[in-house]
UniProtKB/TrEMBL annotation:
Domain of life, source organism: Bacteria
PANTHER family referenced in this protein's UniProt entry, alphabetically: PTHR43054, SCYLLO-INOSITOL 2-DEHYDROGENASE (NADP(+)) IOLU (PTHR43054:SF1)
Domain GFO/IDH/MocA-like oxidoreductase: 139-248
Pfam families: GFO_IDH_MocA, GFO_IDH_MocA_C3
Protein name: Oxidoreductase
Annotated SUPFAM superfamilies: Glyceraldehyde-3-phosphate dehydrogenase-like, C-terminal domain, NAD(P)-binding Rossmann-fold domains
Domain Gfo/Idh/MocA-like oxidoreductase N-terminal: 3-121
Length: 326
């Protein structure tokens, strides 16, 4: 059983710990929080005997865990991951893995130098129904147009409008639409098609300096991927992949619970396979497998770096600058 630590005591961390325990690969043995009281409260349902830390250096140097799940604000991913990797800990870091491509590349270098696994927690790629997309792409014939859409009105946007400065819309935390909602779109595109030949991006920036919404066009050899992302509006339009023989419709790209295949001259067919309710279990299993094999997944590394390169270029084109870029 792998001993798991967590950094960040929020709802997504709770979901991951539940998933990690459900796959029977991990036990929670360490929790970092700003206060011991919060760490104790978080650990109680999973393991009341877990060790609590309020100092990251002391945590990294401890021997009470083998792997750590990092779900802190985006701007802290790089520093915290490198600290853990340098101390021989395997790391699964919430998306996006880093604030920019320079940080992401260095993180993987540190992982390899220390013989440990670094894995970006992008669950969508490992969902059984996302695999159906790959398995059925050839039925569409030659691809020409892809539209990937994810627009969701943020629960924190009203706080921003009221004059507050929540993390979600604060460049100091390496946030904004392309680094959050838009990440699912970009990462899905890279998981399916690899890195593009060219990138063109536009966005509407808030006064805080981050993007509220935007559009990205990824150009491949024979098809384009148009990405629509927003944190200030909702959309009910599905994503779609168009080929010469038909199209594939994907609702809710991040969760991907089914796809609809519509071939020319034929009725639409809904394709789906069962998925567990806590969809983070799939990424937890992949992370555990890498640790047991003693090597990180090169495909996952390539995808993570590709997405980081794209998001870094998108921000450069639209003028979103983080402290980490300086």
């Amino acid at each position: 059983m792998l001993r798991l630590a967590i950094i960040g005591t929020n709802w997504i961390t709770e979901r991951f710990v539940q998933a990690a325990i459900e796959v029977n690969e991990f036990e929670l043995t360490a929790v970092y929080s700003r206060t011991e009281a919060r760490a104790s409260e978080f650990a109680s349902p999973f393991n009341a005997q877990a060790q609590y830390f309020t100092d990251l250096q002391a945590m990294a140097e401890s021997d009470v865990f083998d792997a750590v799940y990092i779900a802190s604000p985006n701007a802290l991913h790089y520093e915290q991951s490198v600290l853990m990797l340098e101390n021989g800990k395997h790391v699964i870091c919430e998306k996006p893995i880093a604030s920019n491509i320079t940080q992401a590349e260095h993180m993987y270098q540190v992982a390899e130098q220390n013989g440990v696994v670094l894995f970006e927690a992008f669950k969508t790629e490992y969902l059984p129904n996302f695999q159906l997309i790959n398995q059925n792409l050839d039925k569409l014939g030659k691809l020409h147009k892809v539209f990937i859409n994810y627009c969701q009105y943020s629960s924190r946007y009203q706080r921003y409008l009221d004059g507050e400065n929540p993390n979600t819309f604060n460049p100091a935390f390496s946030n904004g639409s392309i680094m959050d909602i838009g990440f699912y779109c970009v990462s899905s595109a890279v998981a399916l098609f690899g890195e593009p030949e060219t990138i063109k991006a536009s966005a509407h920036l808030l006064d805080s300096g981050v993007d509220a919404h935007g559009t990205v066009i990824l150009n491949y050899k024979e098809h384009d991927v148009v990405i629509s992302h927003s944190k200030v509006s909702d959309s009910n339009i599905p994503s779609e992949i168009q080929g010469e023989a038909g199209s594939m419709i994907i609702e809710h790209i991040s969760e991907c619970d089914h796809i609809v295949l519509k071939l020319r001259g034929e009725d639409a067919v809904t394709l789906t396979v069962p998925q567990v309710e806590n969809t983070m279990t799939y990424e937890a299993s992949i992370f555990a497998e890498q640790i047991k094999q003693g090597k990180l997944c090169e495909k996952a590394k390539a995808r993570a770096l590709g997405v980081s390169r794209i998001s870094t270029e998108v921000r450069k084109q639209v003028g979103v600058v983080f402290p980490a870029d300086k």
